[in-house]
Here is the input.
Amino acid sequence: MTTETIHEIVRDHYAAAAIQASEGSCCTTENQGIGADLYSVLEREALPDAAVLASLGCGNPVAVAELREGERVLDLGSGGGIDVLLSATRVGPTGRAFGLDMTDEMLALAQQNAADAGATNVEFLRGHIEAIPLPANSIDVVISNCVVNLAADKAAVFAEIARVLRPGGRMGVSDIVADDRLSAAERAERGSYAGCIAGALSVSEFRAGLEAVGLTDISITPSHEVTDGMTSAIIRASKPTAGAGAAGAAKPRIALKSLPLTSAGSCCGLEGCC
Here is the structure.
């Protein structure tokens, strides 16, 4: 499939989910182990209902990102904003939480959820995670929840994560990974692209992609099985404070799946973004 085809499949699926959530209906998923039940009752009760209903992630990255007061955090594929709102609470009024999504319906829902929650230290951006509309070295922590597997160009995503992280910054994401024994065709047999299965990387491919852009301290920890041979995992990495990694992302040494991309971005509150 082409980049645009993948984007359209994913966009259509999550636009429909946003509309369902905004109307008070629970979004459906193909797999168990995906959805709002992965958050604690206290977390869910502190959020607008629509933010919880729109949760289609495979984990709770905020719980493992170890966010601190004053940090700037970026959520890739922020959807209805559940992880952005939880992050905003953790980084406090001196910090800022950014959400990036390509689906207009999800962005509108997230902005409404932020308003309903009274969150003032959040900002939602329109764009693709393969071309993040933020300056280099501007983010302390990158998180995402079951989104890397949806990207058309994973190598570009990893390069962008490394670019926007400040030296010493870190990544903590939840994503679905495949056993190394499964071929791409076997992954596709287990679920669709929009269902977070067909586009998932293997454990080795995910690690190699992060290493290729100079990220270090990589760990991939399984959390629960989603379907046969496919597991939700907590994936952590950091950007070195010195050497090649501190100057920005290195060019990928491997090609996971390089495809052309055009992305629509938006201005943000960070200096140098516009």
Notes: The chain is about 30% helix and 20% strand. Strands lie at 72-76, 96-101, 122-126, 139-145, 165-178, 216-227, 230-238.
